[in-house]
């Protein structure tokens, strides 16, 4: 329904006034102060009306709030079936600064402890509406009163004339429903007129807010429902409905690890509490009591299996301490109640509902905060002990789960889900709005969910479904990209092959496994930080800095030839770095190399003992340039002088490219290189040579042969191409296919030995090795037997394997760079 042109507040004059009007003395400044300062949240304004319903002993309260997008409905309604208000009750309603709720007559009629204390709650409605109308039944009489907050005059001096508010006697309910839109409004709130507006119904109250302000348009159903489900004392004898949906206590939907009553605290914790507060604490009638808390502190604690955190504009906290004083929540926004940060793994799943009526005297007028006092300090000590008890019980619970696992190898979760799946789910819940982010400021640094991932289903599976073993996939993502991208929806870690750390450690079997362990821990470090509520931009900044450190460390001590090859390429335009990487490359190939540099000196000297020809020495020179270096910049004559002064046999000159390299042997660089005996290598050629050096068993001997005999860029290129052309396979590849052939033969002809011929037949069937000679295979088998640490022997043409194939692979990792299956089956990773 749409709002009619005439408001309910403007329709009441169709009835006669009942008795004397209400005099309300307030300044506009006071109205604004009380409403905007004490009740800044629009949700609190609606909550205050529900509090009134609860305090009126209502068994049912129904609310209607329009959605932010429904601009046609310019009203909010709160209905309750409580005791209602008579003429005096409406007068008392506007006595600001005191409340009659606890007076003897009212208390006699009511059965509950009252929440309201100061009588200013109705002013909270000023934050969301300009007009507030009450229609209420009591003593078989229906009365109504309207206050327009705009009527309160501005008064800088603080003095103000009271406004007169008539009380209307609604003596004809049918007439009222016909002349106003009250019936449609009640239908939106799902108020059953046949139940509540018959003559035999003794009491009820309708609060109607009209001429809504902009704050009211920001009230969402989700946010209001959270406030009502967590802040209000929802009990069997008080049912609450929001837009026709029942609001249930938020505790009802959580699957619990455990729960306990705070009266169950151990003697040890009570002794600690006594020592810290200076008061003796004891349990009586299920409550914790002390000299300061004579009425007792009661309540219960739950720790849930899933995190209670949520990041959304509509959803507020469901975790932490919920402190109620006279049944009213007093720490809506402070989950810690002033304590320092607690263990987040427990705290994010922790909910303690605590009743402490002795704090009532410390309560501030807004009922949202408590005065700092000795009483509050002692209360915090109690909260700390309650949390510590919950934390211990959680640790015991998870230890029990870790122990209560399948006994079969490979099925036990040595890596507990509480270290992987559960915190991942927790972190996604807390940052669900950023789950697909990619930037370091607010999005995820390492996590990257697959497109189309259903977040709710993923979270549910991480908490409940048995683990899918994790896979490690290697991909070229670029030198500046992240170390790893973790996709929990596919149980995959995507490892960036272009990252400096990966280039250094991915080529070796066992170091590769360690690298995968490291990227797992690195990705989960982000998860742990976010789970602990560290702001995303801080997490990103820390991990960015850490990534820079990892890259630097990997470059500081390179071992991997693959990493050295790529660092050499990266250094092509860096004068000093190219010098160093040329010396490093020489060492990687087997030279004893030294970096010299300095004016009038070559960049380095490399020595190699060439048996039986004795030691050979060459000088090393690097010419970095973003463009093609000129002949004068290369200075072939100067390099020849370096060779003579150091009594070197040759010179390896390295540059990104050479002048005239697009022409044939008549180029200036080619001519001078031959004349001076300078071997001209490009950075790409040397990097390529190093990248395959191990697999093709290339050493300083082959480099020395090229340096001493090939000089022009074209000659060097041809020599390298010829060297790498045959054979087309690498020795490491040959080792691996021999082991594969032995595995294929395993279990066949068990009464016969394996022979070199059997293996050679299997190997030669592979296209890459179709032209291989038997002598190459026999030589490789000899290498494998020698490196197998007794696992394999070669006697003539007979191959004898003394261990399982998996163990043989493990022992030959040094040659094959394959780690083989682990000796213990993994419950975490897919091998």
Sheet with the most strands, sense and barrel status: 9 strands, mixed
Low-confidence blocks of residues: 98-110, 114-118, 310-315, 433-441
Q: End-to-end distance, in Å?
A: 64 Å
C-alpha geometry: elongated
Give the helix proportion (percent range): 25-40%
Estimated structural class: alpha+beta
- In the CATH scheme, the class of the largest domain would be Alpha Beta
Question: What is the fold's blueprint, element by element?
Answer:
Layout: E1 16-17, E2 22-24, H1 28-38, H2 42-55, E3 60-64, E4 75-80, H3 87-93, H4 104-109, E5 129-138, E6 141-148, E7 163-165, E8 167-169, H5 173-179, H6 182-188, H7 193-196, E9 204-212, H8 221-231, E10 239-242, E11 245-247, E12 256-261, H9 267-277, E13 282-284, E14 287-289, E15 298-304, E16 320-325, E17 328-329, H10 344-347, E18 350-355, H11 374-403, H12 421-430, H13 455-464, E19 471-475, E20 484-487, E21 492-496, H14 500-505, H15 509-531, H16 536-556, H17 561-570, H18 575-589, E22 592-595, E23 604-610, E24 614-622, H19 631-634, H20 636-645, E25 650-655, H21 668-676, E26 678-682, H22 683-691, H23 700-709, H24 713-725, H25 731-745, E27 754-755, H26 756-764, H27 774-787, E28 792-795, E29 798-801, H28 805-811, H29 813-816
Parallel strand pairs: 3-10, 16-18, 19-21, 24-25, 25-26
Antiparallel strand pairs: 1-8, 2-7, 3-4, 4-9, 5-6, 5-9, 6-8, 10-11, 12-15, 13-14, 15-18, 16-17, 20-21, 22-23, 23-24, 27-29, 28-29
Helix pairs in contact: 2-8, 9-11, 12-13, 12-15, 17-18, 17-22, 25-26, 25-27, 26-27
């Amino acid at each position: 329904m749409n709002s009619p042109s005439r408001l309910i507040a403007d329709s009441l004059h169709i009835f006669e006034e009942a008795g004397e009007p209400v005099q309300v003395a307030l300044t506009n400044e006071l109205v604004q102060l009380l409403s905007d300062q004490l009740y800044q949240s629009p949700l609190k304004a609606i909550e205050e009306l529900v509090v009134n319903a609860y305090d009126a002993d209502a068994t049912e309260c129904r609310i209607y709030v329009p959605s932010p997008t429904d601009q046609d409905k310019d009203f909010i309604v709160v209905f309750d079936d409580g005791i209602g208000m008579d003429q005096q009750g409406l007068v008392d309603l506007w006595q600001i600064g005191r409340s009659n709720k606890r007076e003897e007559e009212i208390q006699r009629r009511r059965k509950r402890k009252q929440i309201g204390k100061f009588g200013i709650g109705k002013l909270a409605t000023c934050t969301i509406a300009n007009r507030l109308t009450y229609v209420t039944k009591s003593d078989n009489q229906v009365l109504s009163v309207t206050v327009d907050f705009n009527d309160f005059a501005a008064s800088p001096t603080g003095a103000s004339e009271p406004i007169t508010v008539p009380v209307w006697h609604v003596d004809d309910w049918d007439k009222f429903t016909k002349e106003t839109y009250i019936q449609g409004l009640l239908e939106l709130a799902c108020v059953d007129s046949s139940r509540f507006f018959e003559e035999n119904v003794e009491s009820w109250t309708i609060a109607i807010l009209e001429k809504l302000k902009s704050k009211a348009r920001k009230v969402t159903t989700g946010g209001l429902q959270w406030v009502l489900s967590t802040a209000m004392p929802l009990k069997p004898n008080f049912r609450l409905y929001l837009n026709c949906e029942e609001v249930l206590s938020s505790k009802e939907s959580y699957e619990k690890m455990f729960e306990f009553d705070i009266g169950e605290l151990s003697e040890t914790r009570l002794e600690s509490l006594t020592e810290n507060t200076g008061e003796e604490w004891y349990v009586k009638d299920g409550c914790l009591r002390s000299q300061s808390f004579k009425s007792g502190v009661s309540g219960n604690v739950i720790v849930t299996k899933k995190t209670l955190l949520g990041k959304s504009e509509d959803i507020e906290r469901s975790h932490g301490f919920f402190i109620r004083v006279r049944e009213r929540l007093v720490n809506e926004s402070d989950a810690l109640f002033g304590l320092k940060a607690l263990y987040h793994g427990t705290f994010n799943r922790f909910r303690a509902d605590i009743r402490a009526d002795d704090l009532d005297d410390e309560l501030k007028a807004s009922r949202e905060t408590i005065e700092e006092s000795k009483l509050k300090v002692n209360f915090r000590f109690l909260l700390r002990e309650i949390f510590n008890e919950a934390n211990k019980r959680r640790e015991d619970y998870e230890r029990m789960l870790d122990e209560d696992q399948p006994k079969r190898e490979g099925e036990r979760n040595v890596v507990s889900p509480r270290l992987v799946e559960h915190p991942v789910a927790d972190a996604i819940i807390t940052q669900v709005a950023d789950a697909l982010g990619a930037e370091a400021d607010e999005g995820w640094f390492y996590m990257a969910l697959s497109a189309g991932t259903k977040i709710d289903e993923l979270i549910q599976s991480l908490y409940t479904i048995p683990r899918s073993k994790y896979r490690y996939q290697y991909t070229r993502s670029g030198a500046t990209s992240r170390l790893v991208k973790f996709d929990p929806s596919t149980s995959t870690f995507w490892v960036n092959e272009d990252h400096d750390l990966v280039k250094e450690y991915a080529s070796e079997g066992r170091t590769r496994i360690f690298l995968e362990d490291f990227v797992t821990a690195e990705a989960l470090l982000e998860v742990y930080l976010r789970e602990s509520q560290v702001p995303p931009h801080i997490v990103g900044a820390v991990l960015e800095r850490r990534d820079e450190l990892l890259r630097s460390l990997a470059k500081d001590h390179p071992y991997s030839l693959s990493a050295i090859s790529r660092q050499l390429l990266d250094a092509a335009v860096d004068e000093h770095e190219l010098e160093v990487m040329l010396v490093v490359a020489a060492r990687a190939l087997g030279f004893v190399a030294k970096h010299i540099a300095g004016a009038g000196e070559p960049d380095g000297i490399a020595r190699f003992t060439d048996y039986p020809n004795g030691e050979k020495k060459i000088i090393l020179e690097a010419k970095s340039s973003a463009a093609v270096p000129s002949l004068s910049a290369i200075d072939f004559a100067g390099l020849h002088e370096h060779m003579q002064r150091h009594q070197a046999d040759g010179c390896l000159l390295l540059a990104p490219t050479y002048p005239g390299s697009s022409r044939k042997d008549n180029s200036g660089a080619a001519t001078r290189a031959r004349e001076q005996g300078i071997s001209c290598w490009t950075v790409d050629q040397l990097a390529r040579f190093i990248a395959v050096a191990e697999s093709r068993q290339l050493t300083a001997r082959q480099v020395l042969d090229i340096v001493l005999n090939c000089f022009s860029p074209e000659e060097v290129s041809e020599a390298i191409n010829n060297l790498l052309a045959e054979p087309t396979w690498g020795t490491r590849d040959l080792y691996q296919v021999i082991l594969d052939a032995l595995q294929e033969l395993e279990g066949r002809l068990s009464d016969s030995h394996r022979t070199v011929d059997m293996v050679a037949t299997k190997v030669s069937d592979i296209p890459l090795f179709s032209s291989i000679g038997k002598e190459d295979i026999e030589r490789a088998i000899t290498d494998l037997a020698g490196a197998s640490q007794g696992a394999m022997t070669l006697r003539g043409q007979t191959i004898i394997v003394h261990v399982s194939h998996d163990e043989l692979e493990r022992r030959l990792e040094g040659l094959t760079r394959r780690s083989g299956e682990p000796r213990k089956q993994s419950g975490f990773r897919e091998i």
